[in-house]
Structures are given as structure tokens and as C-alpha cells.
Amino acid sequence: MREKPVPTFSQRALGQGPGCGRGMAIAMLTSGFRTQAARRARTFVAAAFIVAGAASASAQLVLPGAVTPTPEGTVAGAAKKKNLGGEMGAAAGPAIMPKAPTEDAIVGKTLKRDGEGSAIEFSRAGAELQVAKLTLVGDDLRRSGEACRVEVAGTPLKLTARESDNGLRRYQIAFPACPFAFSVLDGAILVTNEGKACELKEAGCRADPEGLWGMGADEIDPKKGEEMLGARARVEKTVRNNFRELYDRNKKEKLIRNYIVKEQAGFSSWREEVCRSYAREPDFGYCALRLTEARAIALGAQLASGVKLPPGVAEEIAAEIAKKDAKKDAKK
Predict the structure, then answer these.
(1) What would the pLDDT profile of 14-30 be if each residue is shown by its tens digit?
(2) pLDDT > 90 fraction of the chain, expressed in percent and rounded
(3) Structure confidence at residue 71 as a pLDDT band (50, 70, 90)
């Protein structure tokens, strides 16, 4: 008896593949994508309003870039829900546990940072993933205002698998001059480097690897624009459903509840920050689609394995809660 084929994540997003209807809701970001203190500070104000919105079904906050919440439906089997605004809007279906992309999604492809800058190619040596080619584009340190381009020697470069708490496969690249890490997305990678650019002193070049490396601007099919935007809307629906379920499971745990609300509140602005420079993004939303898929996967991983607070976050949130409680007491 033949095994029934399982549709990929992107096929579900686009309503394609075996067993997938066009309207099927599918499913991520990740605590690992935005743990810097500066980003936490930016999201605190938005999170404070969102937490307030959880106390009143009529209070809603629509964040920049968020999808308008759907008024009907709740998570299956749950009691009556309090409404959360913006991307935390009312769930319109059950939570979904999306499957993370495998390394096969990036092998043999040329992935470009922001769709037109630095480039990377992956290959396999047996079962091991490796970097077959890496080109970094940045600012020339010797001639102000000019660009530089460095073809990294010594390829293939070794990759080391890293622990991940966002449901995505994660690797560290063995390149001493620029040892960045990345998560595997569907036909793309999301690179993090703690916000630091790499200085390749011998080449006189400074390059920033952080951001989304994916489809090149010349590869994007103009006929797919509307389809990609529609796929993003469906994935955002899954993000709302997964967040709603995660919130309900942890609403009695004050530290965890505040943490996941804060993360969700900052997602739209973080996505905008990462994607604003991606080639042809206003027309196709390719970068936003990939990051929203990643967010759905991260929420699914938290639903499956529980929420793990990053080091120092518990203390930070406890201090914020204590500060708000003190203000309330002062008003009494």
C-alpha cells in the first residue's frame, strides 16, 4: 500500500499539494531571532497595551503591519475567549503544529541576502551539510562610500548544528572572520549575528550578514505576487490561532504569559525591520511570508514543548510587573 504523500509547509501556505484545499489554514519567530536588549525595550510599550487589552473584550490594539483580527470563531474546545488586538486577535480555528523545513530546502540553491547582496550556496558531503560557496558584499574600508565584494576562500566551509528553541534547524558557520549562525527556512535562511557587522581586514571590507537570505530579485515571478500575499494572510491566521492557544495555556503563569505577549507584540515591527530592504518586497512580500512561516513554527514548537524563558528574561519581566503593580498601588 503506497504511503500518502505529505504536503510541504509552503504547499500548505499556498493551498497546494496532496490533500490541501486553497483555503486551508497553515502554519512561526522565535525567541532566538530577537533577544537583544534593545529590541526588548522597543516592544515593552506595545506589550503593556496588549496585556491591558486582554482584560477587556472590547479593547483592541492593531499593531503596524498586523492583519485585522477575524471576529468569528475560537480555538476548538476552549471556553469563551477574551479578545486580544492586532496579531493577537481572536482565533478562527484550531492551533496547528507546522513542520519545520529540512536542509533539502536550501541545498543546491543560491540564496541572496535581501535578494540581491551577499550570496551563499549549500551542498552535502554524505549526510553533512556544508557551505559550497560564500560571497560577502559590504562597505569598502579603504574607499569611503564604495562597495566591496569578497569571495570567501577555503570552501567548502564546515557547519555545526546548534540547539534551537524555535522549532527550526540551526547551524553555525566555521568562518573565523565572520562566524554567523542561521536558521533554515523554506528555501531561505535567517542569519543572526548579534547585530554586528564583520570586518574582513585583509580584504578591507565590512559586511553585515544579518537578515534574510533567499530568492533573488530576478527569480521572483511577477505572476506570483498576489498568490504570495494571499499565502501570507493564511499563515498569519495560523499565527493568531497558535498564539491564542499558547496564551490560554499559560494565562495563569504571569511571567510566561507576559513574555509571550511581549514577543507577539514585537513581531510585526521586527518583521518590518528585517524585510524593509528586501528586493521587491512591497510588491511580493516574499520576506514577510518566510518570517511569518517561521513565527508559526516557533509558536507550534512552544505549544509542543512548553515555553522556555531566555536567560535574564524572567528577572526583567518580574521587574516590569513589580513596577506596574507599584504604580497601581500608588493610585489607590
Answers:
(1) 444 444 433 333 233 43
(2) 56
(3) very low
C-alpha cell at 100: 519545520
* Cell matching residue 259: 513574555
What is the Cα–Cα distance from 81 to 3, expressed in whole angstroms? 39
Instruction: Give the C-alpha separation, 292 to 302, whole Å.
Output: 15
C-alpha closest to that of 168 among 180, 156, 186: 186
CB 301 within 8 A of CB 166: yes
- For strand 211-214 and strand 181-185, is the pairing parallel, antiparallel, or unpaired? unpaired
- Alpha carbon distance 292, 268 (integer Å): 9
Q: What is the pTM of this model?
A: 0.72
Of all residues in the chain, what percent carry a pLDDT higher than 70? 72
* Residue-by-residue DSSP string for 275-301: HTTSTTHHHH-HHHHHHHHHHHHHHHH
Alpha carbons within 13 A on the beta-carbon side of 236: 22
Rounded to whole angstroms, the Cα distance separating 224 from 213 reads 19
**CA–CA separation, 279 and 283 (whole Å):** 9
**Helices 254-275 & 286-305 angle (0-180, nearest 10):** 160
